[in-house]
Specification:
Distance between the termini: 29 Å
Number of strands: 8
Helix content: under 10%
Order of helices and strands: EEEEEEEE
Strand content: over 45%
Shape: globular
CATH architecture of one domain: Sandwich
Oligomer: single chain
Amino acid sequence: MRDMSAFSHLPDVEPLQIWEGVVGRVVQGERVTMALIELAAGCVIPEHRHHNEQLGVCIAGSLRFRIGDETRDIGPGDGWRIRGDVPHQVETGVDGAVVLESFAPVRSDWDGLERLPATGADLFSPPGRRESD
């Protein structure tokens, strides 16, 4: 990840194309990655796993989240914890979702991801519900 100031204005951070329909704006520390992640409506993130521990909270929209053998419908204010190397999968609802997630250690595997132009858009509404769309 690029070196950044001690401060960030997330609408001005270049989003990373993480998956098809999934972009993240990253604030990178030395030992932790925090990302505001926008997921398009009807997006499916296939089962995967990584060595990073992952903590998250849904800010807007809805998700159907499977972590290990447990599945839950997630909405604003709901959170999750994924231990390292635990398989997980996500499907978004009809409006998409915005989530805040942190990963430890840092997501160095994201270093080579495509960077998209920053839009300065409202990031706290699901992509399907934005006034600017």
